[in-house]
Design goal:
Blueprint lengths: L1 H36 L3 H14 L8 E4 L2 H4 L4 H8 L3 E3 L7 H14 L4 E5 L11 H8 L5 H11 L2 H8 L1 H4 L1 H20 L13 E5 L2 E4 L26 H16 L3 E6 L4 H6 L3 H15 L2 E4 H7 L16 H18 L9
Parallel strand pairs: 1-2, 1-3, 3-6, 6-7
Antiparallel strand pairs: 4-5
Helix pairs in contact: 1-10, 5-11
């Protein structure tokens, strides 16, 4: 009996040691995946944006922009600061959902007390209950471990918590995209292969200042048709997710508690994209109703551009984001809108 007990104990110990070794190996693979993710230029822009934010003097901001890539591809703080003689900052992150917007705003309030918060609200992030990749983009630059732990505890579904702590699962998309690109290049060099000619965007894109990413590129021909991401979108089937709409309401409460005036804005997508979208007014009406519920002024630049055309497809870098020529047009209009529709900027009315 004693021998059997010892034998079973040895077996259990061996299993524990084996599992521990597998876990270490698994995490080592995860570190490789994480390193591959660091080569993503969009991640580099986000890193620089947050580094600059954390270096700002305390309570130096009058206005902050939060939201997805549509925020940092639409609102250039310099266009507002020079006009209003204020200091604003762009805090958009890739595919930012409203749960992340809420926690990002809480981090902003640790060191800043902006008078105005501009929440860019994009319908494609309002119909998901949760999205791991955008949360991880935020975590990679967030310098607040306590807030990060709270986010994971309160927002992450159980299965996503497991994925987050297992690095290979968290970074697998970035890793395989990076490795596929490397393998393709090596094969081309080794066998002198000539792949089908790809048309690349002409121009430049770079992080400039105050969180803004400058870009003067234009849309590729394929985005007018075969690769346009909006070809199957029909507003009749679009539903506002309760979780994300709940965070919009929490953002409104947070702004009220901190004395900030909240405004909501939907950035424009390319005109050709709007031609593909069916029943867009049904999407717009649901977002407008949400803004009404929280008592926030709201402007949708897809509707504005339909009513008073001011943009063309040439003002877009792709089928969904403005280039700098479009930014100048929209920001000029948005300055006037802020003057007429906010208390803080009402002093600039003629």
């Amino acid at each position: 009996m004693k021998k059997k007990f010892i034998s079973n104990l040895k077996c259990i110990i061996n299993i524990i040691i084996y599992a521990f070794c597998v876990l270490i190996l698994f995490q080592q693979v995860g570190f490789r995946y994480q390193k591959a993710a660091s080569h993503n230029v969009i991640n580099a822009f986000t890193q620089k944006r947050f580094e600059d934010f954390y270096n700002l003097p305390k309570n130096s901001l009058n206005m902050v922009f939060i939201g997805s890539s549509h925020s940092y591809c639409t609102f250039d703080p310099e266009n507002f600061d020079s006009y209003f003689n204020i200091y604003s900052y762009q805090m958009g992150t890739p595919l930012q959902h409203l749960d992340t917007s809420y926690y990002e705003l809480r981090e902003i309030y640790h060191t800043q007390k902006p008078d105005v918060v501009v929440l860019e609200i994009y319908w494609d992030v309002l119909d998901d209950t949760f999205e791991m990749k955008q949360a991880n983009s935020f975590f990679e630059v967030l310098q607040n471990e306590k807030l990060k732990k709270e986010y994971i505890k309160k927002v992450f579904p159980l299965g996503e918590k497991v994925k987050y702590y297992l690095l290979p699962m968290r970074f697998q998309q970035d890793y395989f995209a990076y490795k596929a690109n490397q393998i393709e290049k090596k094969l081309e060099e080794k066998y002198e292969l000539k792949k089908k000619k790809i048309e690349y965007q002409k121009g430049e894109e770079y992080y400039r200042s105050k969180g803004y990413v400058y870009c003067n590129m234009g849309m590729l021909p394929g985005e007018y048709n075969e690769t346009n991401q909006f070809k199957s979108l029909d507003g009749r089937y679009w539903e506002l997710d309760d979780t994300q709409s709940g965070y919009v309401k929490k953002i409104a409460e947070l702004c009220h508690e901190n004395g900030s005036e909240l405004v909501l804005v939907t950035a424009p997508v390319a005109l050709v994209s709007m031609e593909y979208i069916k029943n867009y007014d049904m999407i717009h009406n649901k977002v407008a109703e949400l803004a009404k519920q929280i008592g926030a002024n709201y402007i949708d630049y897809n509707i504005v551009n339909q009513q008073t055309p001011m943009l063309t497809n040439d003002n877009f870098r792709d089928d969904a984001h403005l280039n700098d020529s479009g930014v100048q047009i929209v920001d000029k209009h948005f300055r006037n809108w802020l003057t007429e529709n906010t208390t803080y900027f009402s002093k600039y009315r003629q």
